[in-house]
Design brief:
With about 300 residues, this protein is of the alpha/beta class. It is built from nine helices and twelve strands. Helix 1 packs across helix 3. The two termini are about 25 Å apart.
């Protein structure tokens, strides 16, 4: 089934070229099913690229999905076109009365700041609390995951002396988890961050599903909060790390080559994508778990009658 996203969104053309089916409003209304309501709280500066990355993954499932783009109302992004935000986004205050089957919270380039120093931190904490009453399942990514696990469980983030940067092999620590259904015993995930969450500081009631020796926890399940915390960037495009590397080199920063990314560690050679299949698996499994457990009556989300997610 296709994904329904706002008409005119630039991601439509990219997804169509890749063979992802995109549905019009008129076609969606003709289908006698309830589409899953998935929100994307986009904290990244390059809004269009991030929209495409996540729409690509959630649009590859056999279910009808309606994606709503959400932004912080207390922060005006410097690098996003105002007309794009006006045309395609709602603020959190505009979305907060709604219920969502799923919510994706992206990363943000603020990880070296203390959480409380981020200008929109008070509003973001309200989002986290809102997920407990208005969202069936939340998928937080990179800094968004660090922020959410810190808010609910007090888990700190620690600065790194050297950027964790490259494609690292991760161990599947919970092969029976429905979120890792079909995963290999180990798999590659792109990593790009200056901070880390440490395994020994993760509360015992949270479940580490995947981790790497070099870069620590990658994916954590928080069943009590109906949340997944992904600390890396499995959604990245093939060239995302290359563009980050070239940007940092152009700025004169002391940045190392991304690990295990360029063939032969030669940045003149095009990188190969070795994580795409597992990215689709992970988001497909997440969407399937939502479909299996979310109430058909979306108004029941956040009430005592809401179906609870199953855990392995």
């Amino acid at each position: 089934m296709p994904i329904k996203i706002p008409s005119g969104l630039p991601a439509i053309d990219v997804l169509a070229r890749e063979g992802v089916m995109v549905m019009s409003e008129e076609t969606a209304l003709r289908q006698d099913i309830r589409p899953l309501q998935i929100g994307l709280l986009n904290l990244m500066p390059n809004k269009e690229r991030t929209e495409t990355q996540f729409a690509r993954l959630i649009g590859a499932t056999p279910l009808q999905i309606e994606m709503t783009l959400i932004r912080m109302g207390s922060h005006t992004p410097r690098n996003a076109a105002p007309d794009h935000l006006e045309a395609f986004y709602v603020t959190f205050d505009e979305a907060r009365a709604r219920k969502f089957d799923g919510l994706i919270i992206t990363g943000a380039p603020v990880e070296l700041l203390e959480f409380e120093e981020v200008s929109y931190w008070p509003e973001l904490t309200r989002v986290f609390e809102w997920t407990q009453t208005n969202v069936h399942s939340t998928f937080a990514v990179c800094w968004g995951a660090q922020a959410m696990i810190h808010h609910f469980h007090g888990v700190p983030k620690h600065p790194l002396a050297r950027k964790a940067f490259g494609c690292f092999r991760h161990r599947n620590l919970a092969p029976a988890s429905p979120y890792l259904r079909g995963f290999s015993d180990d798999f590659v995930v792109p990593v790009s961050r200056w901070t880390e969450v440490r395994a020994h500081e993760v509360p015992a009631h949270l479940r580490i599903l995947a981790a790497a020796d070099e870069t620590g926890p990658c994916l954590i399940e928080d069943a009590g909060r109906r949340a997944l915390y992904m600390f890396n960037h499995i959604e990245y495009d093939t060239t995302s790390l290359q563009e980050e590397y070239e940007r940092d080199v152009a700025r004169g920063e002391n940045i190392q080559l991304p690990v295990n990314y360029f063939p032969g560690d030669d940045p003149s050679r095009p990188p190969e994508n070795r994580w795409r299949s597992h990215a689709h698996l992970l988001f497909g499994n997440w969407i399937n778990e939502i479909y299996q457990t979310t109430p058909y009556d979306i108004a029941r989300i956040g009430t005592p009658a809401e179906a609870q997610p199953q855990t392995a």
